Amino acid sequence: MLKGLSITPPTIGRISIGRVVEKNGKRLPEKSDEFQLTTQVQQRGEWLLHPYDEALRKASGGKLRAIPVRFLFNDPDLNLRAEYSCFDRETGRPVCVGNGETCRRAGENGIEELSCPSPDGCGFAQGGACKPYGRLNVLIGDEDEMGSFIFRTTSYNSIRTLTARLRYFRAVSGNLLACLPLELKLRGKSTAQSYRSAIYYVDLVVRADMTMEAALIQAREHDAQRRAVGFDQAALDEAAWQGFSNGAFEESVEDGSAVVDEFYPADSQDGGSGGVDCDETAAAANPTSPAISRLKNRLDQRAAVLGGQAT
After folding, report:
1. Are 150 and 136 spatial neighbours (Cβ–Cβ below 8 Å)?
2. Of the candidates 55, 9, 13, which has an alpha carbon nearest to the alpha carbon of residue 149?
3. Tens-place pLDDT, residues 86-104
4. Which end of the chain is more exposed for a tag (fewer CB within 10 A), N or C?
5. pTM for this one?
6. DSSP-derived pairing of the beta strands 11-23 and 26-43
7. Sequence-ordered list of residues with C-beta below 8 angstroms from that of 192, at least 6 positions apart, any chain
8. How far is 79 from 139, CA to CA, in rounded Å?
9. Taking the CB of residue 151, how many other CB atoms lie within 10 A of it?
10. What are phi and psi of 105, to 5 degrees?
């Protein structure tokens, strides 16, 4: 195994809830209110749709807001890797990755281990270049039991919700997370920070046609069938851990360029939207957003009224 190269789960497709579009000569993130399954091939700047996208869309009768999935690993941290990440926008290379306590940073002297105070308290992260970044690998369909689809996100809501759900499902199933029949579900909500406009994030639930009890029974049966034919889930998880730890950074230069294009656009240096799936935190950080402009106008109008009453 090549040292310094992070060995990640084989990926056969992508899951997104937005896309990158070209406007006025710039490539900018555009949000969506549904999932999209694509291949890893681009044509004319657009990701080609995966055949699963059409099949699932037909089954759902319209917009794709739920995707049936299983997981490769029982360990939640193998299925979802979430870190504070900073990329070089010119090269697409990761330059700093941390967990809020320690970080690995690329510098003139190679990779250094440093303390990580999180983006809010880190001088290196100022300007919106560093943000939470998660990668979730899931299995869709039965065509390739080791080939996964990857969902990348910089949404606090998605990362926080998926992290909790994965741990809960592992606990209630008795460490049978990889055998549970689950689905990714797109949810919407409005908050004060989003100025009551809808934001979307990804959740993980038991499949719509099943109860929790039925899902647990199926997980135990599936685990027994695997054990009967010699499937070693613990060894698979251990091999995955060794692969991830083989490199300092998970993202390659090839993947990094696409990640920067989609989730770390240039305008996020000034607190801009910064991603196709960004949540209400982005709106709060952008002082030029339409929502904040509307709020400022209302406050100015209110101040004028109060000023008139005072005189």
Report:
1. yes
2. 13
3. 988 888 888 999 999 999 9
4. C
5. 0.83
6. antiparallel
7. none
8. 10
9. 24
10. -125, 135
